[in-house]
Amino acid sequence: MNSFVWSRAAAISRKEVYHILRDPFTLGAALGLPVFMVIMFGVAIEFNVKNVGLAVSDSDRTQSSRRLLDTFASSGYFQVLPALSPGEAMTEVSSARTRAALIIPPRFEQDLFAGRGAEAQVLLDGSDNSTVGPVLGYVGSIQTLASRRIGGFDQPAPYDFRTRFLFNPELNSRWFVIPGLTVVVMAMISVLLTALTVAREWENGSMELLLSTPVEPIEIIVGKLAPYGVLGVLAVTFVYLIARTIFGVPFVGSLAVFGAGCLLFLATYLAQGLLISVVTRNQALAMQLAMMSGMLPVQLLSGFIFPIASMPVFFQYFTMILPARWFMNIARDTFLKGSTLFELGGPFLALSLFCILLILAATKRFKRDLEP
Description:
Blueprint: H1 6-22, H2 24-44, E1 52-58, H3 63-73, E2 78-83, H4 86-94, E3 100-104, H5 108-113, E4 121-124, H6 129-151, H7 173-204, H8 207-211, H9 217-245, H10 255-280, H11 283-301, H12 313-318, H13 323-337, H14 345-365
Parallel strand pairs: 1-2, 1-3
Antiparallel strand pairs: 3-4
């Protein structure tokens, strides 16, 4: 095997750059898609449940029941819709016009001041369990507040129990989602663009000309990865600027650590896309494999939306073979926690290992003969 010659790799890169410039789809996907995705998903994805429809049947109609309703309405979490009877409130929930119902029975105030313990019932739509947990939390807080307003039950507690949220004091969903979107966007761009590059050469018949030159496989791989790496860096820069300026996501970590993680993750997914392209030699098949091996695991198994700690034990270990899981830790921890390179040693080590393995695999699979 001859030594690596940078000039030959640079020649391959120039060829790929000319192709990208002639292909508006590739350029648009690399630069426009990240901006579109971050803005759209950054606005659309919201984990804080608000404006929950609440059908209310108030059979007591006293000052105490009205204070209870006011507490729900003024919380900002519920939209109170009156119902004439408990049955009508249930109908509102079963027909999906509201997600919850509040049933206040007769004698609510009378039982309250008689010391017998007043009861009111909250019914939740369990078919959408993604909202049940947050709504239960709201109801618990409202119950405490309503006890003070209605009955004056504001006895001092024997202890002082305070909760403070670290790194995201307002529990702002966008602060959590947008750093994760960086991972999704980078993986999508890297895998899709490079998965097509070598396969296109084989389909167009230009690979024969490329193989007739003295260029080594590793030079072809480096030459083809470099332009897409630059596009990936531009895409990350756009995402970072949008996150900081439009959505106001704080960044308390080191840009150098975050940048190093981005470059390592980009190289890993570019190599994965190139390996797919080398193995398949078909653009349609390469696209499908890129979707299955790159995009879907990143969105579902990387911890972007679903916490890995809540997954079954098998999948908690399975996600360790996904590079996106490790970069998700790097992105979120550098944005919100300010973690150092030492603290992120494990994710960086895992990403480095995947990067080396995938580049070696792509190089080994890149056959110099024309036989499939």
